[in-house]
Write a structure and sequence with these properties.
The chain is α/β, with parallel strands linked by helices. Helices cover about 40% and strands about 20% of the residues. The strands form three sheets. Strands 3, 4, 5, 6, 9, 10 and 11 form a seven-stranded mixed β-sheet that branches. Pfam families: HTH_1 (PF00126), LysR_substrate (PF03466).
């Protein structure tokens, strides 16, 4: 079986992409620290080898042809694969990861994560683990920016795969002496007249489309513990994870508000490895241990 020998090189495709990205040969030459003539030669040779015109110069700008648009998309995928392959080799050369970061959506229960970490520790070879609480857009950013090695999220960005771990319920609660506690069939208009406690979206670009945020009075807090403390003082109402207020609901000091609809909200938590192709042995082990905790409890 004879192996296919490519007529083009990765460097030629990289130059082609740079010319497109920089809107011309002169700008691309500065970006790549090469002469403009060498870039012209590389792209001309690439087109000749392919037998397809990729660019046409109009004025001082190089514009893509219809064929060039198709080839650009495919070549970007190719160069990204090469980059990923080289980074994978670097990861294998480094071996066991010295650090791991886990980003967890703030309302997800962490008990099984802690159980997985307990099992991971004897095998960790000194790997330092950081757990960060993320809220709404920060969780998505941890995936898209690959700023964490493992992410537990209620939403999967387009094109991202994740392992389903569990379902979490958020309940609408207030103190038993709060005015809303004495009402039944509470409407959304009723809620808008009272103080709402919300947890701050800690992403770089907060997304206010999530959650119910129509109350005229709203206090923004750093975490659910702060919200619970204020609720126990008889202040406001809030959406809270059911597992975090279970004891307070059982004792009766906090109650579920009787709203017309939507008294509970359920989310599915997924475990995501943002860059699976770059994952090292420590990350793979911890990911499997976390999945095992949820799998064993479900069986």
């Amino acid at each position: 079986m004879s192996l296919y020998r490519a007529r083009t090189t990765i460097e030629q495709w990289r130059i082609f992409q740079a010319v497109v990205h920089c809107n011309g040969y002169a700008q691309a030459a500065k970006e790549l620290n090469k002469s403009q003539s060498s870039l012209n030669h590389a792209v001309a040779k690439l087109q000749a080898q392919l037998g397809v015109q990729l660019l046409e110069v109009k004025g001082r700008k190089a514009q893509l042809t219809a064929a060039g648009e198709v080839m650009l998309r495919r070549s970007q995928f190719l160069t990204q694969q090469i980059e990923d392959l080289e980074q994978l080799a670097h990861s294998l050369e480094r071996g066991w990861e010295p650090t791991l970061t886990i980003a967890v959506e703030h309302f997800h229960p962490k008990d099984k994560i802690y159980q997985a970490l307990k099992l991971f520790h004897p095998q960790s070879r000194g790997t330092r683990v950081t757990i960060i609480d993320t809220v709404i857009s920060a969780t998505a950013e941890a995936i898209t920016d690959a700023s964490a090695d493992l992410v537990i999220t209620p939403e999967l960005p387009l094109g991202v795969l994740g392992t389903c771990l569990c379902h979490t319920r958020l309940v609408l609660v207030a103190h038993r002496q709060h005015p809303l506690a004495r009402q039944s069939n509470i409407s959304y208009d009723d809620l808008t007249q009272h103080l709402q406690l919300v947890v701050r979206d800690n992403g770089k670009h907060p997304d206010n489309r999530h959650g119910w945020l129509k109350a005229e009075q709203r206090w923004t807090l750093s975490n659910f513990n702060e919200a619970i403390e204020l609720l126990l003082q008889g202040m406001g109402f809030a959406w809270l994870p059911e597992h975090q207020v279970k004891e307070h609901l059982s004792s009766g000091i906090l109650i579920n508000l009787k709203v017309q609809r939507g008294a509970t909200r359920q989310f599915t938590s997924y475990l995501v490895a943002p860059k699976p192709q770059h994952q090292g042995p420590a990350g793979a082990l911890l990911e499997q241990l976390i999945v095992d905790q949820y799998t064993s409890s479900a069986s």
